[in-house]
Design brief:
Blueprint lengths: L4 H5 L1 H10 L1 H14 L6 E4 L14 E4 L2 H9 L3 E4 L12 E7 L8 H11 E12 L4 H9 L14 H10 L3 E8 L14 E2 L6 E7 L1
Parallel strand pairs: 1-2, 1-4, 2-3, 4-5
Antiparallel strand pairs: 5-8, 6-7, 6-8
Length: 209
């Protein structure tokens, strides 16, 4: 999770995406909310500026970028410095862990999932929100990533690849939601959240330990 250079230099610019694409953001937020356990203790891994943790009522996040963490703290989040590949918490600490648009920036996806598995309680769950590489938005990001400030060097995954990685790291009992059915430039209202995957560009998977 060391691809933090651009985020360190341009945290404010990154945070502005959620303002410019308000309805896409609110759609993604609702898709995550529907899969999040209620009344449980959780951590967001790859917290960013706290755009998801804060409105979801989460109080703790793990973030490698100092600048991003500073913005998140202003949103009331306790920020711990660290990476997904080496989570600085003990075994069986959390009821759930959340990763939103994080897996594409990881240096080692399977190691990160193993770490998430380790810090979850026996009946815990991992919730991952990501752009499906096979979707129209995913294909667009893939084509243009080398000219992107934030996605240069990112690795986008298909749903099948995420499922495979989760199975390899002993996760099970998958449930899915999807949203973002139009091009970002055409989204002028909150998109619906539908079960499953394969049509929406943003997919949320909840996996049990």
């Amino acid at each position: 999770m060391a691809k933090a250079g651009a985020f360190e230099k341009r945290a404010t610019e990154y945070d502005g995406w959620f303002v410019r694409h308000r309805y896409a953001y609110e759609s993604e937020l609702e898709a995550v909310r529907q899969r999040l356990p209620q009344g449980r203790t959780g951590i967001e891994i790859g917290l960013g500026t706290g755009r998801f943790a804060a409105p979801l009522g989460m109080k703790l996040g793990l973030e490698p970028s100092t600048k991003m963490g500073q913005v998140a703290r202003k949103r009331g989040i306790e920020v711990v410095a660290g990476t997904a590949e080496a989570i600085p918490f003990g075994d069986s600490t959390f009821d759930f862990a959340l990763m939103v648009t994080t897996i594409c920036f990881l240096d080692d996806l399977e190691r990160s999932l193993c770490e998430a598995h380790r810090v979850l309680k026996p009946e815990g769950s991992l919730i991952i929100g990501f752009i499906d590489r096979a979707s129209s938005l995913g294909q667009s990001y893939e084509r243009h990533k080398e000219s992107s400030t934030f996605y240069r060097g990112a690795t986008f995954y298909s749903v099948a690849e995420v499922i495979s990685a989760l199975k390899k790291t002993d996760f099970r009992d998958f449930t899915f939601s999807q949203t973002i059915f139009r091009d970002l430039s055409n989204i002028d209202s909150v998109e619906p959240v539908k079960p499953g995957y394969g049509k929406g560009s943003f997919v949320v998977v909840r996996a049990g330990k």
